[in-house]
Amino acid sequence: MKENEYSLITSRVKNLFVAAVAIQPVMFFLLSLPMLDTGISGLIKIFLLVYPPLIIIMSVFFYYFYRKFSTLISGVVEHGNSDNISHEEVRYVNLFPFKTVAVYWAVYGLAVLIVSYLSNWFTVYESIYKIVFSALLGLVTILIISGVYYSRVKKSMFPVVDYIPFRALTIFEKMAAPIVMSIFLLLSIVSVVKYSYTENKINDVRQREIIETVNKTSLNIENFINGLYD
Fold it and tell me: Which residues of 53-67 are buried (b: 16+ CB within 10 A; e: fewer)?
């Protein structure tokens, strides 16, 4: 493995993680917008309150794993083989994508729960059902992005297979990952659109019922008053 290959692996892994960290809050926020019962400012306030400190915590954990990972890959580059790397270190390299995904799930899963709690606290959504649905959407975004991140990291690490025992993705996994993640994303968007459309229809029916009730009540009162003077 050449030096530029080593640099390419480590830089791609780092850039993929940064992209995954940045995309999830944006996707979660956009999917939550159509269900808002109040102004957008409340949701923005919650996201700004929750995500920055958790992103810092996640970055610290990632850097801890990434530093050792980068050192081990560098050792492979310098010696051209895995003779200088122990079995535990080889296992560490293989588990690096999974460990970072676990950190991603733990931190952002907590973020979704806190956002849901604060949404209820600040009455961003009028019903508990919307809060639960929003939380599910947040978890789905984590699933989608972490799945893409994991598959891309495994692909980026493929050159190390010539130097250490590395479990690369199978052809089926390479083909299935983007398809499955795309289906999840499409289903999430369709669910939000369908939910918003159904809710609007229900609200329209309720408004018409209220108007009809008010009109009938006004008419009955008017008839009653007219009856008093007849």
Answer: ebbeebbebbeebbe
